[in-house]
């Protein structure tokens, strides 16, 4: 069964330095119930402007599955652990989800 819409489910994207273990961020988010799951994609090159200059760095994209009621606490925790001055924190709406998966994300709390 598919649940449409799912206004309380959210996907958060952030990047993480490729030379650092993403578990430093992912594990606390899941342990503390701020996320049901965090996926770390393989390293990539990111090209961006920072402090007036173009930078190129190796990063990993992290995909965080959570609910909207956890977003403020998730953001605060991410900022407290993240090594960047301005970490990426992009919230993506979820148009729908398989009902069992949605229930699992909602229930993923210690």
What does this structure look like?
With 110 residues, this protein is of the alpha+beta class. It is elongated, with a radius of gyration of 15 Å. It contains 3 helices and 7 strands, in the order E-E-H-E-E-E-H-E-E-H. It has a single domain (2-107), classed as Alpha-Beta Plaits (2-Layer Sandwich), CATH 3.30.70. Helix 1 runs antiparallel to helix 2. The strands form 2 sheets. Strands 2, 3, 4, 5 and 6 form a 5-stranded antiparallel beta sheet that branches.
Features of the shown structure:
alpha+beta; Alpha-Beta Plaits; five-stranded antiparallel β-sheet; 7 strands; 110 residues
Write the layout of secondary structure elements.
Blueprint: E1 2-3, E2 9-17, H1 23-31, E3 37-40, E4 44-50, E5 53-67, H2 71-81, E6 90-93, E7 97-98, H3 99-107
Helix pairs in contact: 1-2
Which structural class should the secondary elements be placed in? alpha+beta
Poorly predicted ranges: none
What value does the Rg take, in angstroms?
15 Å
- Along the chain, the helix and strand elements come as EEHEEEHEEH
CATH topology annotation: Alpha-Beta Plaits
Q: Briefly, what CATH class?
A: Alpha Beta
The major sheet is characterized as: 5 strands, antiparallel
Question: Under the CATH scheme, which architecture would be assigned?
Answer: 2-Layer Sandwich
Helix content: 25-40%
Strand element count: 7
Shape: elongated
Strand content: 35-45%
Tally of individual helices? 3
Mean pLDDT: 95
End-to-end distance, in Å? 26 Å
Number of domains: 1
């Amino acid at each position: 069964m598919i649940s449409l819409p799912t206004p309380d489910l959210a996907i958060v994207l952030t990047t993480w330095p490729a030379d650092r273990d993403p578990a430093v961020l992912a594990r606390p988010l899941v342990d503390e119930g701020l996320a049901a799951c965090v996926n770390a994609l393989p390293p990539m090159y990111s090209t961006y402007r920072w402090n007036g200059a173009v930078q190129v760095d190796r990063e990993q994209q992290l995909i965080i599955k959570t609910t909207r009621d956890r977003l403020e606490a998730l953001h605060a925790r991410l900022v407290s652990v993240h090594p960047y001055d301005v970490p990426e924190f992009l919230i993506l709406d979820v148009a729908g989800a398989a009902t069992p998966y949605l229930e699992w994300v909602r229930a993923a709390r210690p």
